[in-house]
Amino acid sequence: MKQDKIRLTVNGSSHDLSIGVNLGEIAPSETLVHTLRETLGLTGAKESCDHGACGCCTVIMDGQAVPSCMVLTVECHGKEITTIEGLQDPETEALDPLQQSFIDNMAFQCGYCTPGIIMTSKALLEKNPRPDEEEIKEALAGNFCRCISQYQVIEAVKQAAKNGR
Amino acid sequence: MANAYRYLGKNLPRKDATDIVTGRATFLDDFKPAGMLYGKALRSPHPHALITHIDVSEARQLPNVHAVLTHKDVPPEWLTGLPNHRAVLDRKVRHVGDGVALVAAKTPEIALKALRLIKVEYEVLQPVFDVDEAVKPGAPQLYEQFPGNEFTPGCPVFSPEPFNHVKRGNIEEGFKEADFVVEGTYGYEKFPCPLPPESPAIIARWDTPTDVTIWATTQSPTMLKLIMETKMGDTNIRCISFNVGGSYGNKQTVPMPVFYAAALAKAANRPVKFSLSKAEQLLTYDLRLSNRVHAKIGVRKDGSVSAVQGEWLVDTGVSSDLGQGQIAVGLGEAQVMMAKCKNWDLEGRLIATNRSASGICRGFGGQELKSALIPLWGQAMKKGHLDPVECFKKNFVQPGDGYFWRDGKWWVCREVDYVKTMEETAKKFGWREKWKGWNTPTSVNGTKAVGVGVGVHGNADAGEDESEAYVRLDPFGNAILQCCVAESGMGQRNSLCKMVAEIVQVPLESVRITPSDTLVNPFDFGLAGSRGSRAIGSACTRAASDAIRQLLERAAPVLKVTPEELATKDGMIFVKNNPEITIPWIAVMGPMNTITGMGHYEADYSMPNFMIFFVEVEVDLETGQVEILNIAEGTDVGRIIDPLNLKMQFHGAFGSAGVDSAIYEESILDTETGRIMTGNMIDYKWRPFTDFPPFDTVVLESEFDTHVFKAIGVGEITGAPAPGAILMAISNAVGVDIMDYPATPAVILKTLGKS
Ligand code: FES
Ligand code: FES
């Protein structure tokens, strides 16, 4: 069945988008990172490699960390998506404890990889609130950080896990 | 010693931390001026060819295409490179991926579609990929003006006269004095990619026919302006940078993207963004220099170097951005490492070959030269059964030792002596227990052999070039730091605010720094050569002190004391020996005035910084796989400004910045086709999260006479001593010399005769 509309829920708000090749429509070839950044104005997810290798564009979709450059928007009908912009408490704007832990442990340098790394870590903690160091590293194996903030990121995730207990 | 400072030496959240962890931090890709078009380039499939015919008529007719440029349409006076040689587009293409045509269109997709409509015919020419081949008579010539494919020596921004040759003392005598002489060819040739996660990108908008605004992914906006203005005829550049997604020295002048965006924006009369795809970044943007050294070294029984002679062939690919400057710095750094040697004849030559260009990146010539020189020197140490740590201690620069620096001038080292740093780091690493001699493993367990290695590096550029800063005090207890510093990960904008807050004595929240925009800020050369802490730090602290001096001078008559009797804290002025007497800044300034202090820093190359890098590796003798077991790296920074930021600069030694260029990072060139085969982040190897070994750091604080806070920067050089150290460790583990970078399993097994 040909479908010409899709609905995405992003950070709790739902968006109806038309599929097509005209201005303002979502082309069948468009990737989710593009839709998030260009159509919805959510520029927190960063595009770097555009082929699923670096994790800078990671968002959480139905509980799973996914590289949004490898997902076609047209495939996302009915999905629940959380981006870095959705981690703060919508009412109080309080940071998610994981974000706070990244600040406390200075777990970034340039920060380009950071939204992706935080989202991957967030998905991990949701599934496994008490990961050990190996599980943290394993979960982040697809995230590239060229400034080498890895040592501090591991500390930050460990501490967030510990505080969450 | 107790830390008497409010901010220095303490780990406080970076001022931009919340923006970064919430995704609010703005990078170039998150910004779009009104009417912006997208630029794309058609690129050459041949490593060396002449364009005999190019037809863009169909591309021009495509709706929503605003400009199509070929070599016939680009501003002829625009030439980049050193000396100026590289046009925006040329009739001759010189590497696979060289620009052939440019398109600006409403969307990236339309621009790509237009590129597919361009028809090009080429006359294919013979390419050359090897430096030794490139300098031979009869080799294919890349540029008419550079016969023998050798770029004219000299880097005028660094020195009026070319500095590419260290010639001093008496080289024959030097070798006579030597007890051990070694000669050979050593290389560091695989030009890895610095690979910042944010690809290089530029948005250009012409504001008048001669004024262009360049929004750039640059770590040094003023450097971009200063250098690119000399390449673009009668053009005045305003350069602005946002948060920069990593640079590692690699996003400085961003030359070709600046040309492409600016030429297209001019032709289209609209702002144009030109951003490189990841493939374009890996295949066409500036890589590390490749280099080969044919050299001879003489070493005395006591480990001191008596003579260094040789030819350093630097392969910069198709173009030199600042290669001659990198040679100058590399030669300086070699002398700093072997500062007791009086007899030198070492010449650097910069050679063009038919691959994408090498350019500026962390390590800047010195890392490249040293990665070849340390293995050469190691061979001489091996002959004499000398301990490398003792040799480094014996030879590394100390107060009173001199060297020719990149400005061609003779500098005498003062203040800094790193022997203690070497000893303490060796101790932390356990060098004495682990070092068993050359080509001797620390231990062998079945098929696993363990070995250790060490390297050193130091760079007098930590005091390089000029900086200016203004500090403006407002009546309400705030300080505004005006200084053209970008944020590409070092946290330097924050560190400078800390320094200003310390002097002005206000909360860190009350210090703000202007955006990195060349129009609103005074001159600052940029973040390069670890100069931030000392050079920019000096300008900022002097500006802050100057502002406070003016404030207190104005307050003195109000409080009927001398300025010397006054001090300020948190926006209040008080009499030092009677702190009850206090007035707010506004009582002195009034509500509608500000006070501006100015600070300046002038280059000083008398204080090299330092790193010593120890590494323990385990090599699987069956598979040739190398695993790093642990690292200990040490330095002396005078005084720590920001402990965690400093620690992360050490960690930045991984990747092409050093460590991984020794074991697996490389750009792989297919010399049949001239193509680099590592054009994506799967084929190009990098270290994943799962593979980071324990990393100890040793930081001394000897309080150097640099500026009021006595600090010197080291960020650039943490990776530089690593490659030589790692080859040494691998050779010791396997018991045979491994001399090729990167020492992949294939290299190791071949050397062991197992493949
Ligand atoms: S940009 Fe999506 S994984 Fe790299
Ligand atoms: S912080 Fe720069 S890439 Fe991770």
Compact overview of the structure:
The complex is a heterodimer of chains A (165) and B (755). By secondary structure, chain A is an alpha+beta fold.
Name the shape of chain A in a single word: globular
Which stretches of chain A are poorly predicted, pLDDT < 50 over at least 5 residues?
none
Number of domain modules of chain A:
2
Tell me the helix content of chain B. 25-40%
CATH topology of the largest domain in chain B: Aldehyde Oxidoreductase, domain 4
Largest contact between chains:
A-B, 53 and 53 residues
Shape of chain B: globular
Helix content range of the residues of chain A, please? 25-40%
Give short descriptive properties of this protein.
heterodimer, A: 165 residues, alpha+beta, Ubiquitin-like (UB roll), DNA polymerase, domain 1, 5-stranded mixed β-sheet, 5 helices, 31% helix, 14% strand, globular, B: 755 residues, Aldehyde Oxidoreductase, domain 3, Aldehyde Oxidoreductase, domain 4, 3 domains, 7-stranded mixed β-sheet, 33 strands, 26% helix, binds FE2/S2 (inorganic) cluster
Tell me what the structure shows.
- The complex is a heterodimer of chains A (about 160) and B (about 750).
- The mean pLDDT of chain A is about 95.
- Chain A folds into two domains: about 80 residues, Ubiquitin-like (UB roll); about 70 residues, [2Fe-2S]-binding domain (DNA polymerase, domain 1).
- In chain A, helix 2 packs across helix 5.
- Chain A has a five-stranded mixed beta sheet, covered by helices on one side.
- The longest helix of chain A is centred in the C-terminal third of the chain and has 14 residues.
- Helix content of chain A is about 30%, strand content about 15%.
- Chain A has about 160 residues and is α+β, with helices and mostly antiparallel strands.
- With about 750 residues, chain B is α+β, with helices and mostly antiparallel strands.
- Chain B folds into three domains: about 180 residues, Aldehyde oxidase/xanthine dehydrogenase, a/b hammerhead (Aldehyde Oxidoreductase, domain 3, Alpha-Beta Complex); about 325 residues, Aldehyde Oxidoreductase, domain 4 (2-Layer Sandwich); about 140 residues, Aldehyde oxidase/xanthine dehydrogenase, molybdopterin binding domain (Aldehyde Oxidoreductase, domain 4, 2-Layer Sandwich), CATH 3.30.365.
- Chain B has 19 helices and 33 strands.
- In chain B, the strands form nine sheets. In chain B, strands 3-7-1-14-11-12-13 form a seven-stranded mixed beta sheet, sandwiched between helices. In chain B, strands 9-17-16-15-10 form a five-stranded mixed beta sheet, sandwiched between helices. In chain B, strands 20-21-29-30-33 form a five-stranded mixed beta sheet, sandwiched between helices.
- The chains are: A alpha+beta (about 160), B alpha+beta (about 750).
- Chains A and B meet through helix 2, helix 3 and helix 5 of A and helix 1 and helix 17 of B.
- The site of one FE2/S2 (inorganic) cluster has 12 residues of chain A, from loops.
